[in-house]
């Protein structure tokens, strides 16, 4: 082989090696670019999912707050047609105070009704506790449901004399608060004959029998 041919072949090999090196470099660059693109897509997808989760989570929290607000039970309030009175005679004589929830949602009653007969300055004392020392009764009255309190009048002192009217307040959550009122029931207008003397009134209960037992006039 002559020196000229040897130089020519060496130059060809060198050119081929340079071409292969360039091709490999281009392939590596493309591969790196492709990996960057895939990583970028994954990051974008993850960010989008994270945003969706935050939005969904925020929506669930808002819905929960709305549901909690809708579950708040308002206080009951008296009126001349929501509160009625009746008196039973005999050895277990007593006056029944009945409250009807005429609304389409539940409401709350606290402790006992505050009753001032014949414009008395102070309400009838409480049989279960005193205005300063309440026992914390809270009664939820269902929509269109009832609650009862009883005034025992089974002795001469507790029966006393016939009353003309009664002013009604409903207690609030604290001893000194009231929810609404007062409203006044005129017994003459209602054609009621109620005799109440030195007696007390029970707390609200969900059944007439429970109120009678609390007053000591039930069996």
TrEMBL record:
<dbReference type="Pfam" id="PF14016">
    <property type="entry name" value="DUF4232"/>
</dbReference>
<feature type="domain" description="DUF4232">
    <location>
        <begin position="76"/>
        <end position="205"/>
    </location>
</feature>
<protein>
    <submittedName>
        <fullName>DUF4232 domain-containing protein</fullName>
    </submittedName>
</protein>
<keyword id="KW-0732">Signal</keyword>
<feature type="region of interest" description="Disordered">
    <location>
        <begin position="29"/>
        <end position="56"/>
    </location>
</feature>
<dbReference type="InterPro" id="IPR025326">
    <property type="entry name" value="DUF4232"/>
</dbReference>
<feature type="signal peptide">
    <location>
        <begin position="1"/>
        <end position="25"/>
    </location>
</feature>
